[in-house]
């Protein structure tokens, strides 16, 4: 079994692509760093991880993840501080969520300390790929999928865990317009909504496409039973500010992804003495607040999205405009503070960052 004294084989590329990168115009998720980490699971154990030149995979057509969806992933970021330190933001939370997703999908777990060490190592190897521009980061994508070549429904006996990284710019360059979805459902109680598994995103594509045809960038998902309670948005968790109070759907329901950025927003706000309510949030109260002007702010929180202000909320054919982004004191302050912590500009009093 893996332990903290894990050895990692490293084969460095002799043909770096770094000189081809347009660092001023980095699209999200389209530029890949030079290396990839790969670790296989078979015979009931994880084998020695290898970091090797980034390359395509060759897979058997019956690879079970392709057919039956045993596939999970994480999203994380590394930044370079002004003093040159490389900082990972709360990797322990991703390690924990990855282990929880593994269990829910009947996949083998990776000890959290090992997960973090593997992330640390691949970032160290590709540290020159961390962008230096404000708002840009090195996005880290750990993932695992079932590799048995077998037709039939059972947990795979073999798996591949991999990590690659991408230098990225912003995910949303403008405030987003969202539509509250009342027909389609992202996650059902007792389902896999809390897991970061590929199928959750696949299932969201068709409803999201319909929303886009109506002019909305994203949907706001509601509960699968009554469509009465707000859960999360397509690529991020969701937070509202009403009368100075920060309100966000509680994660007690197993239909909501436990977001690292959302948790950080809540903890920062509480630390600053902002009143925070994590509870069931009804669509009705948000629409009421949008109508009477007490909805001061709504924003998404996610690793890729960071803090993404919501400009308009669509609901039952009406579109509600939210206050100008400049007026949103709490989320602007949290956004700046989070960015400063991640880049070492302020003291990391919560001990969130791990130095690579
Ligand atoms: C992330 O925020 O890291 C995600 O995985 C969401 C995806 C939209 C990139």
Task: Please tell me about this protein's structure.
This protein is of the alpha+beta class. The protein has 2 domains: 9-168, Aminotransferase class 4, branched-chain amino acid transferase, N-terminal domain (D-amino Acid Aminotransferase, Chain A, domain 1, 2-Layer Sandwich), CATH 3.30.470; 176-342, D-amino Acid Aminotransferase, subunit A, domain 2 (D-amino Acid Aminotransferase, Chain A, domain 2), CATH 3.20.10. Helix content is 24%, strand content 29%. The chain is built from 7 helices and 19 strands. Strands 1, 2, 3, 4, 5, 6, 7, 8, 9 and 19 form a 10-stranded mixed β-sheet that branches. A hairpin with a 2-residue loop joins strand 17 and strand 18 (318-321). Helix 2 (91-104) packs across helix 3. The longest helix is centred in the middle third of the chain and has 16 residues, at 198-213. The two termini are 24 Å apart. 42% of the residues are buried. It binds 2-OXO-4-methylpentanoic acid.
């Amino acid at each position: 079994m893996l332990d903290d004294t894990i050895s990692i084989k490293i084969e460095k590329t002799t043909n770096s692509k770094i000189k081809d990168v347009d660092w001023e115009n980095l699209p999200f998720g389209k530029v890949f760093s030079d290396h990839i980490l790969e670790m296989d699971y078979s015979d009931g154990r994880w084998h020695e991880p290898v970091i090797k030149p980034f390359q395509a995979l060759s897979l058997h057509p019956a690879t079970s993840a392709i057919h039956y969806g045993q596939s999970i992933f994480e999203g994380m970021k590394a930044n370079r501080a002004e003093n040159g330190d490389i900082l990972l933001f709360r990797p322990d939370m991703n390690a924990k969520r990855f282990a929880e997703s593994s269990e829910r999908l009947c996949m083998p777990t990776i000890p959290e300390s090992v997960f973090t060490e593997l992330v640390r190592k691949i970032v160290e190897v590709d540290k020159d790929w961390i962008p230096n521009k404000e708002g840009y980061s090195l996005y880290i994508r750990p993932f695992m999928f079932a590799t048995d070549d077998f037709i039939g429904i059972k947990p795979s006996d073999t798996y591949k865990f991999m990590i690659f990284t991408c230098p990225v710019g912003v995910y949303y360059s403008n405030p987003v317009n969202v539509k509250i979805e009342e027909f389609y459902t992202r996650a059902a109680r007792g389902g896999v909504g809390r897991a970061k598994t590929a199928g959750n995103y696949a299932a969201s594509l068709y409803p999201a496409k319909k929303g886009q045809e109506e002019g909305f960038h994203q949907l706001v998902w509601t509960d699968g039973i009554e469509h009465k309670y707000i859960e999360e948005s397509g690529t991020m968790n969701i937070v509202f500010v009403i009368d100075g109070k920060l309100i966000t759907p509680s994660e007690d329901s197993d239909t909501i992804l436990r977001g690292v950025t959302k948790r950080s927003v809540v903890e920062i706000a509480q630390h600053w003495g902002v009143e925070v309510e994590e509870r069931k949030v009804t669509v009705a109260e948000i629409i009421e607040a949008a109508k009477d002007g007490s909805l001061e702010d709504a924003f998404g929180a996610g690793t890729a999205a960071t803090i993404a202000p919501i400009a308009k909320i669509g609901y039952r054919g009406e579109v509600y405009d939210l206050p100008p982004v400049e007026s949103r004191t709490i989320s602007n302050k949290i956004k700046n503070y989070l960015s400063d912590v991640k880049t070492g500009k302020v003291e990391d009093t919560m001990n969130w960052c791990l130095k690579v």
